[in-house]
């Protein structure tokens, strides 16, 4: 499935023998690559694929197209009001990747739109969304919805809104990122998008933050490398300046090893850091594509320089602040922290089992 999850597949060979197409379809949908799989199987004319499987994959492709159209129809007034209200914003990931990387909305689905604003404009952005009929999710004041359309507001690109200690070891210069952002026309609306270098860097960070759990996040990295003429010297400098060498290294390595992305060695070598036994085993899990939930927190620890900061990060990840708890577990109640501790214990055992 991995080799058919690119915008330009290398070949059309289907393994001989009976395949579990039910499993393949479920995994393709779960991993966000069903639209790509349908387009590539159709384009390659692969024989041996059951018609029912092709129909189901086509439904995923068409759903992505309709979802893209729905989002821009519903978000048009919001984007207009942002500009008229003098609220600078950067559109992240999903729709921008459709426009600049995939070129076809059926190939890359998304379930929300991520909008980054300056912290000083966050309240105004929230007001614009409310004025357009969007409501914040209970317990998650930056995630707005109206019907089936979701907007996730961000005031930083690392995720310190939920886990403040995630900023340890990171030296992010938001002003530099804003300065390099470029205007982009999206379905008749002007937005800002990250530069190619910053987009690739934060795609790597996003994939690591979510433990490389979905294949589409690694596909995003691989296709960005294929579609853009990346200034690798600038990329390495940016990663070093921002303290994001490890996320950049792991993201590029996964894209290269799993999907054959043309990442040059001169980009990987300067980002490579000395890794101990545990970190090497954890990174091997990421490369295996197993998508171990929680792997990101374990790997992120190695980016934090001080032991006291590592301990604080672990504490904050397990014992979430009260205002953050509903974002993770709507059930809440007195069993919230015992469930978190049990999950952390199971995760440690699972990582240990897979790493041996």
Describe this structure in words.
The protein has 16 helices and seven strands. With 356 residues, it is of the alpha+beta class. The protein has one domain. The strands form two sheets. The chain has a five-stranded mixed sheet with strand order 1-2-5-4-3. Strands 6-7 form a two-stranded antiparallel sheet. It is globular and about 55 Å long. The two termini are 26 Å apart.
Question: How is the secondary structure organized here?
Answer:
Elements: H1 21-30, H2 34-44, H3 51-84, E1 89-92, H4 94-102, E2 113-117, H5 122-131, E3 135-137, E4 140-146, E5 149-154, H6 174-180, E6 182-186, E7 189-193, H7 196-209, H8 215-227, H9 232-241, H10 245-259, H11 265-271, H12 277-288, H13 295-300, H14 307-318, H15 325-328, H16 336-355
Parallel strand pairs: 2-5
Antiparallel strand pairs: 1-2, 3-4, 4-5, 6-7
């Amino acid at each position: 499935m991995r080799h058919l999850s690119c915008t330009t597949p290398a070949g059309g060979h289907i393994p001989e023998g009976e395949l579990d197409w039910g499993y393949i379809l479920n995994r393709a949908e779960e991993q966000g690559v069903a639209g790509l799989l349908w387009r590539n199987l159709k384009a390659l004319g692969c024989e041996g694929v059951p018609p029912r499987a092709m129909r189901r994959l086509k439904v995923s492709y068409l759903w992505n197209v309709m979802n893209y159209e729905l989002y821009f129809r519903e978000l048009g007034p919001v984007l207009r009001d942002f500009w008229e209200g003098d609220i600078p914003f950067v559109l992240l990931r999903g729709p921008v990747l459709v426009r600049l990387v995939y070129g076809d909305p059926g190939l890359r689905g998304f379930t929300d739109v991520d909008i980054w604003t300056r912290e000083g404009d966050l309240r105004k952005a929230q007001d614009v969304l409310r004025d357009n009929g969007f409501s914040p999710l209970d317990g998650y004041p930056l995630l707005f919805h109206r019907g089936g359309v979701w907007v996730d507001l961000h005031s930083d690109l690392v995720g310190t809104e939920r886990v403040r200690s995630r900023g340890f070891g990171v030296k992010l210069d938001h002003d530099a990122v804003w300065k390099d952002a470029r205007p982009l026309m999206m379905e008749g609306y002007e937005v800002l998008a990250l530069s190619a270098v910053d987009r690739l860097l934060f795609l790597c960070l996003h994939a690591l933050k979510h433990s490389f759990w979905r294949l589409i996040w690694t596909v995003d990295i691989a296709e960005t490398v294929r579609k853009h003429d990346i200034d690798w010297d600038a990329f390495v400098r940016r990663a070093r300046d921002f303290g994001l060498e490890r996320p950049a290294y792991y993201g590029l390595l996964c894209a290269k090893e799993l999907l054959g992305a043309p990442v040059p060695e001169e980009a990987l070598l300067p980002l490579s850091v000395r890794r101990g036994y545990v970190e090497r085993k954890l990174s091997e899990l990421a490369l295996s594509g197993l998508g171990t939930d929680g792997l990101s927190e374990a790997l992120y620890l190695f980016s934090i320089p001080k032991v006291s900061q590592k301990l604080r990060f672990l504490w904050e990840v397990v014992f979430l602040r009260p205002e953050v708890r509903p974002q993770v577990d709507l059930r809440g109640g007195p069993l919230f922290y015992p469930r978190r501790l049990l999950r952390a214990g199971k995760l440690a055992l699972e990582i240990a089992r897979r790493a041996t």
